[in-house]
Amino acid sequence: MFRMIRLQLFSMTVAAGVVLVCCGTARAEDAGVDLGHLLESYNEGIEHAISSIDSLTVKQLMYEPQEDGSMKRAESLLRYLRSEGMTRDVVFSEISHLMGKYTLLSLVGPTIDTLEYRVVYSGLEEQEGHACCKLLLTAIERDADHFDGTLWVSIEAPGPVRIIGKVADPPFPAVEVLLDKAFEPGPDGIWLVRRHTGEAEVKLLVTRRGTRHIFYEDYQVRLVPVGGEGSESGF
Questions:
Q1: pLDDT tens per residue, range 59-75
Q2: Domains of the chain
Q3: Which of 72, 183, 197, 229 is at a distance of 20 to 30 A from 128, taking alpha carbons?
């Protein structure tokens, strides 16, 4: 399935994929949705992932479209150990400047603190095959770790299904960073990112834009031992 999505992404522009279209805002209470409880359940899911994962490895495949229609590629292996944090080993790369700061939150999704975000409920909507609550977010904390955009939260098992938006305050020399991330449920109800398309505009002497499509495959997750023995699974 992800190989089909990858081919579709190659033939489209990120600009078309990250435009946010708001067709009116429904009140959460009108749909019987308790926004406070939804956010609490969502954040508990993120915190559960952080506390439950003892170790993790995943293959990261990166593709960068070129102006001549060709594609540059890179492959890395992300490793997470609770005692050491996240590391990335580059297997091979045709892409220069493989930047990126990766933490476990990069893979499981962000927490949404109402002291850091203004949150508006925008109705029920299917996304990535899941019934979701659609939330519009505006960052109060204006930095590179927060974003403005849309978050779709699964109704069945509150977790991040998809995030589309832009970084609130991109780090220099970027003047705009767009993002589109999709997640899937993994072991023990933990949601993990499967694909991430990003577009950045950088301005130094000249202004340039670049796009990268990133896919995550072959997750191997070991959960924190319970009763002296941990569990390991892949997906």
A1: 999 999 999 999 999 99
A2: 2-225 (2.50.20)
A3: 72
Mean pLDDT of 209-229: 90
pLDDT band for position 97 (cuts 50, 70, 90): confident
Q: Which of 16-30, 50-64, 65-79, 148-162 has the lowest mean pLDDT?
A: 16-30
Q: Is there a contact between 160 and 179 (Cβ–Cβ < 8 Å)?
A: no
